[in-house]
Design goal:
By secondary structure, the protein is an alpha+beta fold. The protein has one domain: Glutaredoxin (3-Layer(aba) Sandwich), CATH 3.40.30.10. It is built from three helices and six strands. The protein has a four-stranded mixed beta sheet, with helices on one face. Strands 5-6 form a two-stranded antiparallel sheet. Strand 3 and strand 4 form a beta hairpin. Helix 1 packs across helix 3.
Length: 109
């Protein structure tokens, strides 16, 4: 377990329909949680329109928040239905790798 984490954490995966990257990201996230024995619940939050994107401060599909904090935060004035890319060891991809998720979760938790 990461740093003897005892309390359940809430992980939210935000996405919009049509984004092909959220399914592999969810699989990677589940793998990290299982492998590292992280006590977490995963909630899927589908963003349906621009108004909801603005309300949720949606950084793009897909986004992952832990206890309300985005794992890859960025400042913006406007939030829209858009795709998000991640800089991985093999180039830009639509979702973070298992290793990237492990590193970010470890830093945050």
């Amino acid at each position: 377990m990461i740093d003897s984490l005892k309390n359940m954490i809430e992980i939210t995966l935000l996405y919009f329909d049509g984004c092909p990257s959220w399914v592999p990201a969810l699989e990677n996230l589940r793998k990290v949680i299982e492998d590292k024995h992280i006590p977490a619940d995963i909630t899927l939050l589908r963003i349906d329109d621009s108004e909801q994107a603005q309300r949720e401060h949606f950084l793009g599909s897909l986004s992952i928040r832990v206890n309300g904090v985005d794992l890859w935060p960025e400042e913006r004035a406007n939030y829209t239905l858009s795709c998000r890319v991640y800089k991985t060891p093999t180039g830009l991809k639509g979702s973070p790798t298992v290793e990237m998720l492990t590193e970010r979760l470890h830093k945050l938790l």
